[in-house]
Amino acid sequence: MxxxxxxxxxxxxxxxxxxxxxxxxEKFNVLSQEDRWFKNALWRFKDGTDSTDRKQLxxxxxxxxxxxxxxxxGSWSVxxxxxxSEEKSIRRYNHLINRLKEELPNVCFLNDSVKFxxxxxxxxxxxxxxHIDACSHxxxxxxxxxxxxxxxDDIVTRGCAMMDARQFLSAKGAEHFKFVALGKTYYAMEEHxxx
Length: 195
Description:
This protein is of the alpha/beta class and 195 residues long.
């Protein structure tokens, strides 16, 4: 099993596996071979490309989640934070959700109850962007009967999408949350300027 890291945000603590370096980090020459692999694999995961490295990222998430304590006891739900459109969400998460369903028959998959009511502007347009609610373009049919929820995201930067998802699901009856992401944005420029 790959090493699990954690970072605490206002919404809660997220468990993640890789640091994600932006394109600006390239000039500081801080990326290891693993960092470069993850950066490329992440984009294939996000795009839903059928590739070995995308499947490896999926299996990292599956292995971690299926080994969480009590995950299959009938009290847990899984929710993948939606992409900007229904099409992108399907491409990004269908393989992961199907793999989790194979491993966790007693878990409720909330994305099966998500209805898209539009598209959402992508958050990655500018560093000073206004907050865009990660769940503003979806509704959830019905309430949540299994109050413990694993919230999955691909990358966590400031934790805003986690907070949005937590508030969105709390309004539907969720009570306890675990946050899991493939990676966390790491600012190599800031680290470089500290030295």
